[in-house]
């Protein structure tokens, strides 16, 4: 499998991948995380325009997507019921989604991110038990609760090479 930056021409496939991911989340007890068509085409196009949207390809077919954004994320400025491992510069992973056509996507994405960053933050919905398990499996530590842009609470995690 290979990872590359997303292109505008990937948008129709990315929308398909996100639809599959929304259905999977609903089927596995997490129907509230990505509702009402989130992420929208506008959000995805903004990610592509910012240069921090990526796709994972298998046999020249997009099977997953994610955002890896370097720099401070304002939603992580305040953390409740815990604390970050450190205040060093970090990157954030957002909107990771898979079509279900390939195994081991989370590990591949995390290896890609860890090759580029010593500190990585990620968050997910409390009901997203699958993602919570995968995050912990990749050596992230639970840090507390954050509020995302919509005001909804998310469980927040951090990987730090330096602890």
Question: How is the topology of this model organized?
Answer:
Blueprint: E1 2-5, H1 11-27, H2 41-50, E2 53-58, E3 61-70, E4 91-98, H3 105-116, E5 119-124, H4 129-137, E6 141-147, E7 153-160
Parallel strand pairs: 4-5
Antiparallel strand pairs: 1-2, 2-3, 3-4, 5-7, 6-7
Would you mind describing this structure in some detail?
The protein is α+β, with helices and mostly antiparallel strands. Helices cover 29% and strands 30% of the residues. The chain contains four helices and seven strands; from the N terminus they run E-H-H-E-E-E-H-E-H-E-E. Strands 1-2-3-4-5-7-6 form a seven-stranded mixed beta sheet, with helices on both faces. It is globular and about 40 Å long. The two termini are 30 Å apart. 33% of the residues are buried. The mean pLDDT is 92.
What would a concise description of this structure say?
The chain has 163 residues and is α+β, with helices and mostly antiparallel strands. The protein has helices at 11-27, 41-50, 105-116, 129-137; strands at 2-5, 53-58, 61-70, 91-98, 119-124, 141-147, 153-160.
Task: Label this structure with key terms.
163 residues, 30% strand, 7-stranded mixed β-sheet
Number of strands: 7
Write down the overall geometry.
Answer: globular
Query: Uncertain spans, ≥5 residues at pLDDT below 50?
Result: none
- Ends distance: 30 Å
Characterize the biggest β-sheet.
7 strands, mixed
Average pLDDT: 92
Q: How much helix, percentage-wise, in residues?
A: 25-40%
Count of discrete alpha- or pi-helical segments spanning 4 or more residues: 4
Order of helices and strands: EHHEEEHEHEE
Radius of gyration: 15 Å
Q: What percentage of the residues does DSSP assign to strands (E)?
A: 25-35%
Strand order of the largest sheet: 1-2-3-4-5-7-6
Q: What class would the helix/strand composition place it in? A: alpha+beta
